[in-house]
Every structure is written in C-alpha cells, then in structure tokens.
Amino acid sequence: MKRTKAVVTMLVVLGLLGTVGGWRRVASAKAPASAEVVIHLTAKKFEYTPNEITLKKGVPVILEITSVDRDHGFKIPEFGLRVDVKPGETTRVRVLPDHTGRFEFRCDVFCGSGHEDMAGEIVVVD
Ligand code: CUA
Asked: What pTM did the predictor assign?
C-alpha cells in the first residue's frame, strides 16, 4: 500500500512537471492538473511495459505511451479506445475506468512475428 502511494505521488509530480500542451489541455478540461495521474507505458516488439496497470474505478488517468522501436497500436476494446503509437512521438489518452474488472489491451498494428502476443491488462478495482 505504501509503495503504491509512493508510485502514485511520483507520477503526479511527473505530471505536474510535464509541459506538453496535450496533457495540460486534457487535464484542465475537468480538474486541476494535480488530480489526474499520468501513467507512462513503453511499447516495443513485442511487449508493453508495464503490462499490467491497476486503476481505481471512477478515477481518470492519462496514459502516456511511447514506442522505442517501430509503429505499434494500443487498443482496449471494452473501453472503445484505440490509438497509434509511433516512435519519436508520445501518445496521450485519457481513460475513465467506469467499471471494475480485468480488461485486455493489445497491439493492433502488425509489428512482426510476436505481434499476436503483444498485450497487457488493465485491472480496475473499487
Ligand atoms: Cu506491436 Cu503489433
């Protein structure tokens, strides 16, 4: 529990340090900048790091995704969400987890022989 809090605090601090317009625009739409945690994901052949993310139901977060090698995709079918993830760019997407459960995210841009296994899970808890 303590460790989780530390991680969240760190992410909030990182979010506040962020100077990119996209993030600020999204954050200021609904709440003060400090309210939305930024979670960074790295995509590479053929995995996401981290490959499991735990979110709290009803608490929006910003996923910030970068690729270290080539084009990938990021899709969460149950959330009706998909984005492209390109090397040299940062893709930001706001997620509001509105029900509990485990939801798969996966790469939906063919990226090589391990593409089919490039996936992870979002765990939404109460
Ligand atoms: Cu990464 Cu397909």
From this structure: 0.72
